[in-house]
């Protein structure tokens, strides 16, 4: 089994004006595709791992042979991070922050405004390239964190629920060096319905 580039669930221009069509085209067709191709190339050296799901590989990264481990972290993380990112986005100003995620954010993170503040800070202060995350810990509690490069929260025992890509290729055509503007606009295109579905599914897996 080889990993495949997933199709976007919408057109390149669907997220405009928050994320422009050219950025989406390059981001998906070039950057994400490269992660998939490089992941498959790495796994060819150890075909016994090819049948594993990407989440399983990242959760059990120490079991991956040392000679391809960093390639799986970089490219497997890039593949999973981006696959989650595309699904987490929708048309600007069309999705309501409600339901289970609202309940847990209010109970565990101090409410929506505090969550936005902490998530934005995690994204803005991530030096160089990386991601900001809303994730679940092993106890089923929400946490806000960030990771460098394409590292996945799975590597540290967290389950990613919502992520924001702050690599420059994710925003530079439209926002140039104004990362804080990109972060602010991101909340307009979050697909909270998808976030709620993912949150409920993983809480169930944790028995919460």
From TrEMBL:
Name of one Pfam family that matches: Sod_Fe_N
Top-level taxon: Bacteria
Domain Manganese/iron superoxide dismutase N-terminal: 2-89
GO CC, alphabetical: cytoplasm
Function in brief: Destroys radicals which are normally produced within the cells and which are toxic to biological systems.
Manganese/iron superoxide dismutase C-terminal domain ranges (all copies): 100-198
Source organism phylogeny: Bacteria, Bacillati, Bacillota, Bacilli, Bacillales
One Gene Ontology term of the molecular function aspect: metal ion binding
UniProt entry keywords in alphabetical sequence: Metal-binding, Oxidoreductase
Protein's recorded name: Superoxide dismutase
Native species: Gemella haemolysans ATCC 10379
Catalytically driven reaction(s): 2 superoxide + 2 H(+) = H2O2 + O2
The protein's required cofactors: Mn(2+)
Binding-site positions, Mn(2+): 27, 82, 165, 169
EC number: 1.15.1.1
């Amino acid at each position: 089994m080889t990993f495949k580039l997933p199709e976007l669930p919408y057109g390149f221009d669907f997220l405009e004006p928050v994320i422009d069509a050219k950025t989406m085209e390059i981001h998906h067709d070039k950057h994400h595709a490269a992660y998939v191709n490089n992941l498959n190339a790495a796994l060819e050296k150890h075909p016994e791992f090819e049948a594993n799901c990407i989440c399983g590989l990242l959760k059990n990264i120490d079991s991956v042979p040392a000679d391809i481990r960093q390639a799986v972290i970089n490219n497997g993380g890039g593949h999973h991070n981006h696959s989650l990112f595309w699904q987490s986005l929708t048309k600007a100003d069309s999705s309501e922050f409600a339901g289970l995620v609202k309940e847990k954010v209010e109970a565990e993170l101090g409410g929506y405004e505090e969550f936005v503040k902490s998530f934005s800070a995690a994204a803005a202060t991530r030096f160089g390239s990386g991601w900001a995350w809303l994730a679940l810990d092993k106890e089923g509690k929400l946490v806000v964190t960030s990771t460098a490069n394409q590292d996945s929260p799975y590597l540290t025992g967290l389950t990613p629920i919502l992520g924001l890509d702050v690599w420059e290729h994710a925003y530079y055509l439209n926002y140039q060096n104004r990362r804080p503007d990109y972060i602010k606009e991101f909340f307009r295109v979050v697909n909270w319905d998808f976030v709620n579905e993912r949150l409920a599914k993983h809480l169930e897996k944790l028995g919460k």
